[in-house]
Design goal:
By secondary structure, the chain is α/β, with parallel strands linked by helices. It has 2 domains: 203 residues, Rossmann fold (3-Layer(aba) Sandwich), CATH 3.40.50.11720; 182 residues, Rossmann fold. Helices cover 45% and strands 15% of the residues. The chain has 17 helices and 14 strands.
Length: 424
């Protein structure tokens, strides 16, 4: 099956190449070293990476996984300062964050596309002692070639979503041999462990919990000074990590709530910053006064909405918010985004009815009376009004949220223990 994958991969890659190019053009982030995805490294990068022989290679795909991986990397490197690390990502936005936030001495690069010559070139350049992969970024060539090279291969914070579970089982003939290349799999929940076992019963799987519960806000985290954009005494509502068509719903709900509460102000942080033009058109048509953070234009007066189509600022905006509307939970979106971040910062959170990709965190918050869960989109405006008029409810939800997250911490230490045992 792996042979067939390698045979067909170049053809499949040509099919997906146009979409990859479009994303590269539209998506912000670090792009100067993007040729590394094709195994092409500048001389200085080759020299820097070749000095990291024997390092642990940590890989994450996009922004969410990168933030989790950075938590792991920072704690692990502090506990074992003699160990060398390299860090790779797939997306340009994640690459930007990684370059800015990795500990000193860690080299960052783009993960190669899963084409045999590219993967072999990187393995030969770095000669890692271990490959640590986050969540579900399981590329067959990268995993099997690393194992064949004598590299310890570990999956951490592993999960199999509801959406993917049936596909993994249906094609277990392909996925089972790939998963057997992992020396250890650290699963988020017992359900994830059960799903891995359903693909291949002989895997070495340990339930360690979700590292995202261990993500603490950076010491001294400062919010964005929203007084620059909004006037008077205002209550900021954050539309957090939104997906289409949620922005339209949230803009309309905000406008409805503002009829009796002009102190409300809206901040929109889309999940994908390249959708800025699309969201700006919605704002322009809505009649709301707004400022687009990436416009480069001077702010000529106070506005009612800030469009923050930027990368790497989400935590700062969460810190500044009073009410957080959780993206990818409304308008038929049910997978969710990282609800742990606003919860850990003690914010009053409003969600739709489901968060399939964050079931454990969502269940913990609901059990702890720490989130305002809505069953229909039509309830959104009323929920904003309710939280606006009841500051004590905002404080209670935020306090409960922070407590619920803290109660589920501990996965990071368990994971590092397993990693040390496996690699040593």
């Amino acid at each position: 099956m792996i042979f067939i994958y390698r045979l067909l991969f170049p053809l499949a890659f040509l099919f997906f190449l146009p979409g990859l190019v479009i994303k590269l053009i539209r998506r912000p982030g670090r792009k100067s070293n993007y040729a590394e995805r094709f195994g092409i490294f500048a001389r200085d990068r080759r020299e820097a990476l070749s000095k990291m022989n024997g390092a642990v290679w940590i890989h994450a795909v996009s922004v969410g996984e990168t933030n989790v991986a950075l938590s792991l990397l920072k704690k692990w490197s502090a506990a074992d300062p003699a160990r060398k690390f390299v860090f790779s990502t797939t997306t340009t936005t994640a690459q930007e964050i990684a370059w800015n936030k990795v500990p000193a001495g860690v080299e960052v690069f783009f993960c190669p596309i899963d084409f045999t010559p590219y993967v072999k070139k990187v393995l030969k350049l770095i000669k890692p002692s271990a490959l640590v992969i986050l969540e579900t970024e399981i590329w067959p060539n990268m995993v099997t070639l690393a194992r064949k090279s004598g590299v310890k291969v570990i999956l951490v914070n592993g999960r199999i979503s509801d959406h993917s579970a049936n596909g993994y089982r249906r094609f277990r003939m392909f996925f089972a041999p790939v998963l057997r290349q992992f020396h250890r799999i650290c699963a988020q929940t017992a359900l994830d462990a059960e799903r891995f076992a359903g693909i291949a019963s002989d895997l070495s799987v340990t339930v360690t919990g979700n590292i995202k519960f261990d993500q603490t806000p950076p010491a001294g985290l400062q919010g964005i000074d929203l007084a620059e954009f909004f006037d008077g005494k205002f209550i900021p509502v954050l539309a957090c990590s939104t997906h289409a068509p949620e922005e339209k719903l949230m803009i309309e709900a905000f406008q409805e709530a503002r009829k009796n509460h002009p102190e409300l102000k809206l901040v929109i942080v889309p999940r994908h910053a390249e959708r800025g033009n699309e969201i700006e058109n919605l704002l322009r048509n809505s009649g709301i006064s707004y400022y687009r953070r990436t416009s480069g234009k001077p702010l000529t007066g106070k506005v009612d909405c800030l469009l923050a189509d930027t990368t790497g600022e989400l935590l700062k905006f969460i810190r500044s918010a009073e009410i957080v509307l959780m993206g990818k939970t409304f308008c038929g979106n049910d997978e969710g985004q990282n609800i742990i971040e606003p919860a850990a910062l003690g914010k009053a959170i409003v969600t739709g009815p489901q968060m399939k990709n964050f079931k454990q965190a969502f269940a913990a918050l609901i059990k702890g009376n720490a989130v305002l869960k809505l069953e229909t989109d039509a309830e959104l405006s009323g929920a904003i009004v309710r939280l606006t008029e009841d500051p004590e409810l905002r404080r209670e939800l935020g306090s409960n949220a922070a407590k619920a997250i803290a109660a589920h911490a501990g996965a990071l230490n368990k994971t590092i223990t397993i990693l040390e045992e496996t690699i040593s």
